Amino acid sequence: MMDRHLTHAGEPLAELALRLRAAETGGWTEDGARALVESLGRRWDEVRDQASTSGDGTRDAEAGDLRLRPVGPAEERYVEKEAYLELVASLTTTTPHAGPAPAPDPVRQAEIFRAAKDELFDELGEPSAIGSYGSMGPYFAPTPAWGAPFLRWRGKRDTLELRAGSRGPELVLAPTAPGENWLWSLGHGEEHAISGYFGSRPGPANAGLSLPGRWSARSWETLTDALAAFFTTLPAEFAALGIARVIPVYGRVGGSAPILFDIDADDRLMLASYAERDIDPASFGWGTVAEHPKSRDTWQNEYDPEWRFDAGGPGEPRGRALAEMVVATARAEGVASTDDLLIGGEGEDIRPYAVRYYGLGLATV
Fold first, then answer.
1. Which keywords has UniProt assigned to this entry (predicted)?
2. What band does 64 get if pLDDT is binned at 50, 70 and 90?
3. How far apart, in whole angstroms, are the C-alpha atoms of residue 353 and residue 346?
């Protein structure tokens, strides 16, 4: 990884994070928000109203950009007395002697986010939560196409978050209760109610944290959509978060529930099928270890599993094609419905975090 310096308006990331965590937010009222902005050495008229930006997910982030998100009519149900939902500080990235970096591609986005994460780990310690917003950010805001990873240091009143932005990481300070009220409200069970995934760790920081229930994919079409979104951004997000995990998928077939697939989530996305020889996995797109040699890094035994697919690194997976390959294989193996596909619980154990893959719409076994 290249040596990078992450700053906001010239202030180093770690110093800004410490100032934000110690800041007095005054209950996020109008007066409290004004005092917060001034405590950061900025004038009130310098702060951009996030509601006035483009609204297409780009938000026109600029160097030193500081934005407040006001409570609108749609968010009033999640707040008590707050007038604002979050303060967002965009971060700029430079390399020594090179000046500001251009808008990065998925590989660089993941790399820069990882650099920010490592710096904050050193200063703030282990986050209380990690995950991805998927396609639906807080209060239904759009998210970057390359991925939407986040790290969160939860406090009783205020929470600090490192979040993916359109041009690089953003440091966000927000009142804790409204965001958690919004997330809880999504547990109504309708398809695609929640996207992405959420990992929390045990400890005092998460005391009182309540997580919403999951939704279930009710058709193969819904599951294909969910898998496509998951596969498309997974290697970029896991590289950004600095985590790796093999996620097994089991299927109820003929009175038992054998393992059908492995999803190797790392800085490359690798898939494996344990299909029996009474179907032709190659006809669905699967290959052998000779065709996908990098899969040896995950599965050393060249014949177990026999069928693999190297989907590539950040920005490379063709999510729709991968999803169709997995769904077609599952159905050919005799999986009768989406209710019969199950995520292995061992894949949700990313210590010290217990992760829920909300966006997949699958139950856990």
1. Plasmid
2. low
3. 12
- Phi and psi angles of residue 134, each rounded to the nearest 5 degrees, phi first: 65, -135
Contact (CB, 8 A) for 166 and 155: no
Encode burial over 78-111: b for 16+ CB neighbours within 10 A, e otherwise.
bbeebebbbbbbbbbbeeeeeeebeebebbbbbb
Q: Note the pTM of the prediction, 2 decimals.
A: 0.90
The residues pairing with 267 across neighbouring beta strands, listed in sequence order, are none
Give the pLDDT confidence score for residue 53 in this predicted structure. Answer: 46
The tokens 């900025």 sit on which residue?
42
Q: How far is CA 68 from CA 37, 47, 52, 234, 357, in A?
A: 9, 7, 10, 29, 30
Report the phi/psi class of residue 339: left, alpha or beta, with left for phi > 0 and alpha for psi in -120 to 50.
alpha
Is the pLDDT confidence value at 55 over 60?
no
